[in-house]
């Protein structure tokens, strides 16, 4: 099957490579020349385990290519919309301008029956709106269908999540469109991936609802962590006990600095904005609070840092972590960088180290100093904060670091450090969600 993938960010690049691995002829479209250049050489424009190999084998096989020219995609049977839908600059809703621009540029070029499939995360009702736009703009009688097929991939596990999905969601209006999507994903369906057939609106909602539930879970666990902190209870023991209940489960129960990234924060806000538009005003307050609790973890961390060192005196502060989560070099809405920037605004001289995201931190936060190693960051620091859950940080030797830090004060914002070990090395150890229990 001939397939186009419009937009080659985390979602589109991974999707295009996986479709090519599934035997289809795929053309990825983007406007960013740098990104296209890398992709044409079989290289992902971001850190994503396994993606380079998949892209290279697709490009080498001749089944995967990339272009900036929409005229080259008109022969495709299926067009996947994978462009970004960020938060609008002046509110909480999703900015659909790129999605609209792509559909409006594609529609007049279409001259054969095809299916336009949305994968981008969008407010419910977008598929219906796009159907109207396509009907208006595509040449009469072309026969263009619209379906929604949300993607649930996680950064850092994008290839695995795409090749071994826990579910495929086909939001379709007809058996024909359903059949077409089954053919697109034939290899995954054959290998037993569960398929949920539904209507496009429910498929759109499936994605934002999943992200809303994940966000709510993290904020709930962070509320519990605050209560633990205030009552000298142990949040790790608590989450272990909660997670043993099969109705609750133990995944996604890590307390700390809260969620960030290109999806959960903006999708939660867009969900609330859309719910309000639809008249669901009072109940959607729940999700607005989820967002507030999440932001609060960042403020709490800055306040804790301010209580431990006099930030106005310009101390050197080492921030270990820049990516929004471990396993990724993505710094979009990174809780670690939000804290780092706030500390700098209060007067600290902030030095950041991240195992993967250093270049992105330099690009997006030129005001922050970036170090190649954790040791370089900690050398001479009066305070150390661990703000991304990299396993490398858990493996750091507190005795070693204690020799080069100016003061032995550490804040574990992700509960990745072994507090006993750090205290034994004479560090004044603080962790979000933990009271003073165990402190010397
Ligand atoms: C998320 C969804 O998981 C994925 O299904 C969707 O397609 C896109 O958005 P991703 O943004 O890659 O994926 O990150 P995820 O692994 O969900 O983590 C999101 C944030 O939550 C990170 O900042 C992470 O550090 C934080 N997190 C995660 C916690 O604070 N606690 C946890 O227990 C889990």
Task: Give an overview in words.
With 440 residues, this protein is of the alpha/beta class. The model has no long low-confidence stretch (mean pLDDT 96). Bound molecules: uridine-5'-diphosphate-xylopyranose. The site of uridine-5'-diphosphate-xylopyranose has 21 residues, from helix 9.
Features of the shown structure:
single chain, 440 residues, alpha/beta, Rossmann fold, 2 domains, six-stranded parallel β-sheet, 18 helices, 14% strand, globular
Separate helix tally: 18
* Low-confidence sequence ranges: none
CATH topology of the largest domain: Rossmann fold
Query: What would you call the shape?
Result: globular
List strands and helices in order, with pairings.
Layout: E1 2-6, H1 10-21, E2 25-29, H2 33-40, H3 51-61, E3 64-67, E4 78-81, H4 97-106, E5 114-118, H5 126-137, E6 144-148, H6 158-163, E7 168-171, H7 175-184, H8 186-190, E8 195-198, H9 200-231, H10 235-243, H11 264-277, H12 285-308, E9 316-320, H13 335-345, E10 349-353, H14 358-364, E11 369-370, H15 374-378, E12 383-386, H16 391-394, H17 398-404, E13 409-412, H18 419-424, E14 428-431
Parallel strand pairs: 1-2, 1-4, 2-3, 4-5, 5-6, 7-8, 9-10, 9-12, 10-11, 12-13, 13-14
Helix pairs in contact: 1-3, 9-11, 9-12, 11-12, 12-13
This protein binds uridine-5'-diphosphate-xylopyranose.
């Amino acid at each position: 099957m001939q397939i186009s993938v419009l937009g080659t960010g985390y979602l589109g690049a991974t999707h295009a490579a996986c479709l090519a691995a599934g035997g289809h002829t795929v053309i990825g479209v983007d406007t960013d020349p740098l990104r296209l250049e890398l992709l044409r050489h079989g290289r992902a424009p971001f850190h994503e385990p396994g993606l380079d190999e998949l892209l290279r084998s697709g490009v080498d096989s001749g089944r995967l290519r990339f272009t900036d020219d929409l005229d080259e995609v008109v022969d495709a049977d299926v067009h996947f919309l994978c462009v970004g839908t960020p938060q609008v600059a002046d509110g909480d809703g999703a900015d659909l301008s790129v999605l609209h621009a792509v559909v409006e540029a594609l529609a007049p070029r279409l001259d054969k029956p095809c299916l336009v499939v949305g994968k981008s995360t969008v407010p419910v009702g977008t598929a219906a709106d796009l159907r109207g736009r396509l009907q208006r703009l595509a040449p009469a009688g072309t026969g263009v269908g619209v379906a929604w097929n949300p993607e649930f991939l996680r950064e850092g596990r994008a290839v695995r999540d795409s090749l071994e999905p826990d579910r495929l969601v086909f939001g379709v209006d007809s058996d024909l469109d359903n059949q077409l999507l089954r053919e697109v994903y034939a290899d995954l369906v054959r290998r037993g991936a569960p398929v949920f057939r539904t209507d496009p609106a429910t498929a759109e909602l499936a994605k934002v609802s999943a992200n809303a539930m994940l966000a709510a879970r993290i904020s709930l666990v962070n509320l519990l962590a605050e209560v633990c902190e205030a009552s000298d209870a142990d949040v790790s023991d608590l989450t272990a006990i909660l997670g043993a209940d099969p109705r609750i489960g133990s995944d996604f129960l890590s307390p700390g600095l809260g969620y960030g990234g290109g999806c959960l924060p903006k999708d939660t806000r867009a969900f609330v904005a859309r719910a309000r538009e639809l008249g669901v005003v009072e109940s959607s307050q729940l999700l607005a609070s989820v967002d507030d609790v999440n932001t609060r973890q960042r403020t709490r961390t800055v306040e804790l840092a301010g209580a431990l060192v006099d930030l106005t005196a310009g101390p050197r502060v080492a921030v270990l972590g820049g990516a929004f989560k471990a396993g990724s070099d993505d710094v979009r809405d990174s809780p670690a960088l939000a804290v780092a920037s706030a500390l700098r605004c209060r007067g600290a001289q902030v030095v950041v180290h991240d195992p993967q995201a250093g270049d992105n931190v330099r690009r997006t936060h030129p005001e922050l100093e970036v170090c190649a190693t954790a040791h370089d960051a900690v050398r001479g620091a009066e305070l150390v904060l661990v703000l991304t859950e990299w396993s490398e940080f858990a493996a750091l030797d507190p005795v070693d670091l204690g020799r080069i830090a100016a003061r032995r004060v550490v804040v574990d914002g992700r509960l990745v450090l072994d507090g006993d070990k750090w205290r034994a090395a004479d560090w004044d150890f603080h962790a979000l969600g933990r009271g003073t229990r165990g402190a010397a």
